[in-house]
Amino acid sequence: MSCFLAISEVFQVVCAVCDTKQPIGKQQFHCDDCGICRVGGQENYFHCEKCGSCYSVTLRDNHLCVENSMDMCITGSVIAIM
User: Fold this and answer.
1) Which GO terms describe its molecular function (predicted)?
2) Could you give the CA distance from residue 12 to residue 5 in angstroms, rounded to a whole number?
3) Long-range contacts of range 27-32, CB-CB < 8 Å, 24 or more positions apart?
4) More exposed terminus of the chain, fewer Cβ within 10 Å: N or C?
5) Is a pLDDT exceeding 80 seen at residue 8?
6) 11-38 pLDDT per residue, tens
7) CA-CA distances (angstroms) from residue 34 to 11, 51, 63?
8) Backbone angles phi, psi at 21, to 5 degrees
């Protein structure tokens, strides 16, 4: 089920979860665990619970797993990379 709602037939979609507008056609998906929208098709990514980030399925058993790698060491906030 897609979290994106088309608001224009040609130009953009809005994520129903985080309310961000994005261009159509980039296979957007919202990762509930990351709390952000990502592109590239949800079937091509998995969320690593230990790292706290999404990675390509080709890295499922082969990525450098660093616990909470998306947390900033100074502020303690989560890095939002799109």
Assistant:
1) ubiquitin protein ligase activity; zinc ion binding
2) 9
3) 28/4, 29/2, 29/3, 29/4, 30/3, 30/4
4) N
5) no
6) 566 676 666 776 677 788 888 888 888 8
7) 25, 10, 17
8) -95, 135
Q: What angle do CA 30, 15, 21 make, to 5 degrees?
A: 120
Q: The whole model's pTM is what?
A: 0.59
Q: Are 39 and 13 in contact (CB under 8 A)?
A: no
Rounded distance, CA 26 to CA 22, Å? 9
Listed in sequence order, the residues at least 6 apart from 57 whose beta carbon sits closer than 8 Å to its beta carbon are: 43, 44, 45, 46
For residue 82, give Cα distances in angstroms to 22, 61, 76, 79: 11, 23, 19, 10
